[in-house]
Amino acid sequence: LQCHSDKTLTKDVNGKQVSLFVDGAKLKHSIHGGMFGCVDCHTDVKSLVHDVLPKKVTCAQCHADAQEAYSHSYHGKTVKAGNAPAANCQDCHGGKHEILAADDAKSPVNRSNIPTTCGRCHGQKFLMESNGESAQAFLSYQESVHGRAVEKGSLKAAVCTDCHGAHEILPASDAKSPISKA
User: Fold this and answer.
1) Alpha helices of the chain — where are they, by DSSP H?
2) How many CB atoms lie within 10 A of CB 108?
3) Threshold 0.90, pTM exceeds
4) What digits encode the pLDDT tens for the residues 18-55?
5) What is the spatial distance between Cα 3 and Cα 22, in angstroms, rounded to a whole number?
């Protein structure tokens, strides 16, 4: 973090300035920072000053099962097709250097936070409509007995992932979907 703790550290990617800043305090409290050193993920970094531009680290390097499930999901297929914006790992789990364990109350994938995390996209009418979808299902959930119970602090009420799954989220029209009428 000698270099990456500098908030002004950037690199140019296709004419756009991209920050290379890593918040050491957030990394320290993240699940990755608590278990790994930088070079455990950035395996091609061999010296303090990088002789070669390090390769991009992907979640799939360690989380192959989750990546495989995601690749079959509605989100994954949408991203692959390049048709519209769809959730990726960081959208749900948070920044790669700031990911908290699911049992941490501050984690976006903590059970009590799942509706808020999914709602960041699925609760936005304009975003959902831009993808040819409706925000109505999420809005209906919020008004349901489940949504109200979660809002009041229930840890037993159903959240999005209870019915839709976590990584391999499939549309209701897919016979393999847990929400398929079949």
Assistant:
1) 24-29, 38-41, 64-72, 74-81, 89-93, 114-122, 125-130, 136-143, 145-151, 160-164
2) 19
3) no
4) 999 999 999 999 999 988 999 899 988 888 888 788 88
5) 9
